[in-house]
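Here we describe the complex-level prediction in full. Unlike the single-chain runs in Section 2.1, the two entities below were treated as one system.
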Amino acid sequence: MLGKPVADYLQTHRDEHLSKFFELLRFASVANIKGKPDQCHLAAEWLAGVLAEIGFDAVVLPAAGKPNVIASLHVDDKLPTVLIYGHYDVQPADPLDLWESDPFEPTVRNGAVFARGASDNKGSHFAYIMATEASLRGGGNLPVNVKFFLEGEEEIGSPNLEPFVKEHAEKLSADLAVISDSGFFADDVPSITYALRGLAYFQVTFNAQANDAHSGMWGGVLPNPINALARMIAAMQDETGRIMLPGFYDDVSELSDEERQAWAKLPFDEKATAAALGAKALTGGETGYSLLERRWARPTLDCNGIVAGYTDRGAKTIIPAQAGVKISTRLVANQDPGRIADGFKQFVADHTPEGMTSTVEVLTSARPLLLSTDSPAMGAAKAAVQEGFGKAPAMVRTGASVPAVEIMHRLVGLDAILIGFGSPSDNVHAPNERFQLDRLWRGSVTAAAFLQNIAAGPSKW
Amino acid sequence: MLGKPVADYLQTHRDEHLSKFFELLRFASVANIKGKPDQCHLAAEWLAGVLAEIGFDAVVLPAAGKPNVIASLHVDDKLPTVLIYGHYDVQPADPLDLWESDPFEPTVRNGAVFARGASDNKGSHFAYIMATEASLRGGGNLPVNVKFFLEGEEEIGSPNLEPFVKEHAEKLSADLAVISDSGFFADDVPSITYALRGLAYFQVTFNAQANDAHSGMWGGVLPNPINALARMIAAMQDETGRIMLPGFYDDVSELSDEERQAWAKLPFDEKATAAALGAKALTGGETGYSLLERRWARPTLDCNGIVAGYTDRGAKTIIPAQAGVKISTRLVANQDPGRIADGFKQFVADHTPEGMTSTVEVLTSARPLLLSTDSPAMGAAKAAVQEGFGKAPAMVRTGASVPAVEIMHRLVGLDAILIGFGSPSDNVHAPNERFQLDRLWRGSVTAAAFLQNIAAGPSKW
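The structure predicted for the assembly as a whole is:
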């Protein structure tokens, strides 16, 4: 249980915290916008200032793109160190005309604050900042050593994160990471995410003749790289959706009956999900698995983009010289992106017809993550969520990859627990993004309880 | 045999004709260039002026795009009327730095005139103009009624030709058309083209969800329109290249043994052709047919362009909302583009998976053409080529479609014979386009002989 002084501090400082939160939300910290003064730099400086005021040793560190904030408050060598990851950059706000209020002037309606970034991810990591302030000022000290790592380019795919983490590995060293960039499974279902899918993303190009050729003069003579590419893509999956790359399923961890049963009980409304996505049917993936199983525990293969030949309006009668496609696979434990890439390249080579050459470029890759749900850290997290939200969390996975998780795991050796306070109804990445104020209050209690629970556990994790 | 006065006239007026031909070549009559003064208008006015000077009733007629020239010289109601089609517009000249001389300042080197449009198509139709002048001034009169129809937008696909022909159908009426926009099979192989392939060109779109979706969050849940489109394209042909659209081959005229044998004797160098096209192998089309058979006498299916999802540099992890492809079929006698479109639409509907809708738009279509090689008109043409070039013409087909041929056939009821004087080595559509002067002289003799041979035949065709 969280000590009364800390809980009281959070309770009595709501107005002050809300006012600070609004300051953070007013920065239009969109990573792909270049402006003067740069709103990302301003947001990073503001965060470092707030953390320094609380007592952290906080710095804004330059990176190839937008800067990152690292802050550290070291209490005692004997205590474990928890690294809290979040990102201060936000999605672009457009289309602006669909917002009911200014996306960068936070407005409270019906118990929620509306602003770009309120849920993704400023609300979640601000709850952790509030928790550290309350622990220090209400409880007298932090229960563990705490570091913050607040990134500035998450929404554009963290393109400069890896060299940054490499350079500052020591500053980021910790015993455990907690990622505040996830959310509830549903509005009333607080959740802990214990698995992420990995990624292996490829660019494939088929090269046929040197130039586009007249399809009348040369149709029936020259091979067509679009048709060939289509045949290759089609051959990558059978009619049940099973992926035919060599060795693709060799290392896949099968789902336990326990997980299957737990997921079947989660309140997932397929119809509402389809409606929200504007989808006619949720027919992706392999047959023989439930929707959540396909989304969380099964690897997938999707073409992400394709372009070749004449793509403007009307007709142009050419056989294109080349054709290119972007294909990505989402991986699950214990698939290895390197082995998958080997199988992928083999498959492409085997399906490159006579008269063409092919190239495969690995554009990005990330390992899947699957954490034990029985570890002491998970126990600390579950108890914290129970305390903050009054119910046991659902243990869920996500189909997505979080580059920061994979990079920190690989370069700093950190395992991350994902506890975030957003909700699927928060209009994340869409107009009228919002964050329920109740989540901010309960989230900060959860965050403070989590740090305290970690302190009560083993000293090394 | 061509009368001596006409032959002599052509022989003695070479300098004058060449100088006129150079005037025509100096117009940079590129149809997609908008300039003042418009070089296409100037070229059309010049042609009408030259034809009027010879004795034609010549007009420059406006069209939705560049104007067209129609000229008529009516000799006698009892004589047949021959319509001569050509186009005065030319391909753009770029890349300019690869030209050895100014593309619009004709230059003679090694017996050939180098200029954009010299071969395609100014040289060929100018030979017909010279022939009519020689018939009139040397021979005293035209042997038949003659019309010229000189188009200004052939190189951009004749987008405005159909309404123009509809509007001026009466002015274009004739007994027979001769198209001067084809060429020799090889440098020493004068040729008559007796068949064109037809065309049915489609835009297919698969629509899945309302928006692009995150491929991590929704991979395995949402259906992917690129993957589905690839499966559909792949299913359109079997592994031998046979096209699987319902009823596709029902109306195909099989090649005669006579044609097979004749084509096998044509001097076709596959290696040199592959090298000229920058192709690794000439593996398009169906197995079981020779290259010329696949090119001239077999229908084909080619994707001409495809685009969907993210196509810029790097990785973006989306499942696209939709995917679109342009697919065209080249048709041979007696396939009907309407029936082919019906089968195509049926196939697309049958291959649209659950969770998607599809649309098919017919972008353009043209009927195939297959003329008898034994008709009186063909006899006149063969004898004319024999006289002009000193050898019997090869009877060839082309894999391409000529919109003007199809449009005139459909709207004016005209059958066209294709006799042109260009050569595969003329660098048509490329830098340093050229036209052998010998072809201009022999071509004009051929053209004059053809008109005379027609006069000697039946009065109605």
